[in-house]
Amino acid sequence: MCEIKINVKDITLSYGDSTVIDSLNLAIPKGKITVFIGRNGCGKSTLLHAIARLLKPQTGSVFLDDRNILKMKSKEVAKKLAILPQSPIAPEGVTVEQLVKQGRYPYQSTFKQWTMEYETALNHALTVTNMTELKDRNVYELSGGQRQRAWIALNLAQNTDTILLDEPTTYLDLTHQIEILDLLYDLNREENRTIVMVLHDINLACRYADHLVAIKNQKVYCQGAPEKMITRENIEHIYGLKCRIGVDSQFGTPICFPDGKGRKIN
Ligand SMILES: Nc1ncnc2c1ncn2[C@@H]1O[C@H](COP(=O)(O)OP(=O)(O)OP(=O)(O)O)[C@@H](O)[C@H]1O
Ligand SMILES: [Mg+2]
């Protein structure tokens, strides 16, 4: 059995009277890449918010390294766990560099604002996300993809051993999608960081995830290694869509070909 990084125990999440997640249990393995999938509105972002302590559960608890996150101090949580929300909003007028610097806030003290470590973490985050040249640009003047990379840089500057990302590849062109997923893969494989993310691209999810979790009907519908979990039946149950399943000849991971309309050659 692998070690557990995050334990979600019997959690119920609601907005007013509307329950989105009901008595859900989930163990997220340490040092692995876990990907949440599911239909729009099934509660993936809501669950991620609760794991990051941005949303208080009605019942149940979330444990990070066996500690109840609701009982931890904010700065302590911020040193251990970073989250990139689905539609982050930057304060008006900030530059990329100023935005990314926010990631260092858990490490700042009143007396020691600047350190070599601070500068190194900042430059590293800008370099790996390809944002160094754009660091003086206003965040609002960036393209959707550039802005997304600036947010990912902020996340990396926080230098936490758990990183949660809600659809990190949204707005990114194919090159940048792979670049970001490769980067997260390296952070996982080389630095043993635990990555938890929401992805809509099933094929990329199958390629990068060690552990796949499908959310449906307010609960975990099924979970496991993508090669076991991605079957015609499961895709039909999760998405209400018929598909064919193939295999990526290079990676050996499942590929999902959805049914539907389209051009047919021959
Ligand atoms: N702040 C909110 N107030 C009220 N209802 C909300 C709020 N945020 C989300 N919801 C509702 O909760 C449900 C789950 O939303 P959530 O954003 O978690 O879904 P999701 O799985 O992330 O969907 P998507 O794939 O579209 O991002 C939806 O029905 C949504 O309308
Ligand atoms: Mg969402």
UniProtKB/TrEMBL annotation:
Keywords of the record: ATP-binding, Cell membrane, Ion transport, Iron, Iron transport, Membrane, Nucleotide-binding, Transport
Keyword Membrane: yes
Membrane association type: Peripheral membrane protein
Keyword Cell division: no
GO cellular component: plasma membrane
Domain (ABC transporter): residue spans on this chain: 6-242
Record's subcellular location: Cell membrane
The protein, known as: ABC transporter
